[in-house]
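Hi R.,

As promised, here are both runs. First protein below:
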Amino acid sequence: MSRQTATPKPKAGRNLPVAIGVGVGLFVPLAAGLIWAPWFFTLLIAVGLGLAAVEVHRALLLKGMRAEIRPIVIGTVVSVLGGYIAGRVDLHISAVGFAAICLAATMLAALTSRLFRGADGFIRDASASAFLIAYIPLMGVFVPLLLAADHGRLRILIVIMCVIASDTGAFAVGVLFGRHKMAPSISPGKTWEGFAGGVAVAALVGALGVYFLLETHWWVGLILGALCSLGGTVGDLVESLIKRDAGLKDMSNFLPGHGGIMDRIDSMLVAVPVGWLVLHLALG
């Protein structure tokens, strides 16, 4: 009788080599696009946000809430790509104005589409559409708005650096000193000590980033990093609540070793509008 050797399961149920490969495969085109071809970077973001909207839509279906996903996906892609174009081509409308019009049109299209399925559950389904539009495209349009600003690519880079620094700092400090659970019923691994560490590291990275890359006051970066860290934490907790309410471990298995797209962008999705606001008020 032959002896079979059981293959050890990877920690946290993830296949580490696959996760690393997928991570690198995502990072390289995004980084290359941001540095050399911002239009390509924006296209990838638009497609990713459209797929993320589908993931959240499927989670809402598990709760009996049916958003009008087709007009929402179209509106998401058009809002992001159109916002980028409006920031570079004279369309007699600002990128902010174009994004606002697209989002309003997306909501109108979703409501119109739902009319044809009758009155039963209309309020529930319309609420699902409104939530999805506010959660995905409304947050996502701040990517082209950041790009449209002076030194837009550097602004986005600094915001990304702040979020990564926040995650890294929170993890390291939480592992070493974490004692007090932040939200045990939502995300058992988060601690207040880790949160404080994430804010501190993000603030430091933000200060260095704006001082050396944007050549402005370091204290702007302190505020930017701290608020991006806070926004990223909120984004992570919100997505965790959606998954818990829907009974999901991951939003999907679209990204092997990582879960769904929303599992990768939940923090960034909220941090980008925060970063845009801080830099807009500080630098214009």
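And here is the second one, sequence first, then its structure tokens:
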Amino acid sequence: MGKLHIVGGGAIGSLIAASAQKNGVPYDCYPRDRKSMPSWAQWQDGQTTMLKPAKFAPVALAETDVLILPLKVYQLKAALLQWLPYLTQQPTVVLLHNGMGGLEAATELLGCDYPLLLATTSHGALKVKASTGDVYVQYTGVGATQIGAPDFGTGTPQTLTALSASAPQLANAIAMLDTALPPVQYQDDILKALWTKLSVNAVINPLTALHNIQNKYIADTEFEQSRNAICDEFTQVANACGLEFDAQTVHKNVLSVAKATGENFSSMHQDVAHGRQTEIDAINGYIVEMAKKKGIPVPENTLLVERVKALSL
């Protein structure tokens, strides 16, 4: 078995590390700031799991290893450039982030024939500072991870069994992740799954950040007009990009996720609350960028990008 190498000290990466520790999967963590790296995890039943000490610098990886990048899209390029000299054996790289644009950044540096997986997760996790000053990660919501290989025009295997036959390295990486933090579900059309996640993030993230609210309040009637406008614009752009979405279904899914994660604060809300750079460019900004290429007006998404950026001025 190879080893999971988790870049960054964020909540989701730390959750993967803690679950790997719990389930006996070898792993190492590589945070930018070791002081902000959680030292333990608290599960929903109150149990805790201690994490291994973080590593200082990248190491050469074996082909059987898996490099996981649960980062912000704007952090990806710098992280990949740092790791590039250590990827000569071409270990599997997993991109796990909100929004879009990561695939473009990765293929620019790694090329289209690199063993690459795209993933999106609905697990909920939050970094918390204890009264002692220690940082820990709290598991806030059980979810699932969807994963798949990008389609560069040659088609992707429709099942995990078919992937095992044509790309065993990728299938082994998925199996390792499923052992570490289950369930991990293979998607032959991972792009559709990523766009679906984008539709949810495009509504919940900016509105919770702008109005300083938990996810559940997105379902309130005061946000109905904005929700509908975002979903309508998203659907027009996604369909123009070759996908198939229905605005009503998109809206219904957004409400479902908002209610299911009701007590959570979105990642963008947390970024604004802590004075960090947001992912607005990779979420609503990506919709605006694609809309420009297709000649589609998207005034609601454009306004949200401007308003969220104004928060950090």
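A quick note on the second one: The chain has a mean pLDDT of 94. Let me know what you think.

Best,
J.
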